[in-house]
Amino acid sequence: MNLLLDTHALLWLLLKDKRLPRETALTIIDPSNTIFVSSISGFEIATKVSLGKLPGAEWISRAFVTLCADFDFIELPVNNAHAVMAGAFRLVHKDPFDRVLAAQAIVEGFGLVTDDGAVEVLGAKRVWV
What we know:
Elements: E1 2-5, H1 7-15, H2 22-29, E2 34-38, H3 39-50, H4 58-62, H5 64-70, E3 74-76, H6 80-88, H7 96-108, E4 111-113, H8 118-122, E5 125-127
Parallel strand pairs: 1-2, 1-4, 2-3, 4-5
Helix pairs in contact: 6-7
């Protein structure tokens, strides 16, 4: 299965945060699944670190590219189709980062690993077990 990680799912995995359910973590590390990480997640983490909103995650921002490679996650750049869809969503979900992630999941046909049920309203297939 092709899965796109929401930024918080990625952070919780890397930080070993208890908010990431065990079954969801096992789904992420299951070698039969292909895991994608959006370039928008790198932007979101770096932005929030620079604003002081992610204390303790500075190292993740600095090592983002290497960490993704170490886990064999595949980079998913934001393309024009993703951007146009994210911009066209009604403001059901106001977080622009999540809107891009939902659009990417829809356009690419990926499940979106997130605890945010609002992405389903946008049309994304949510994966959270």
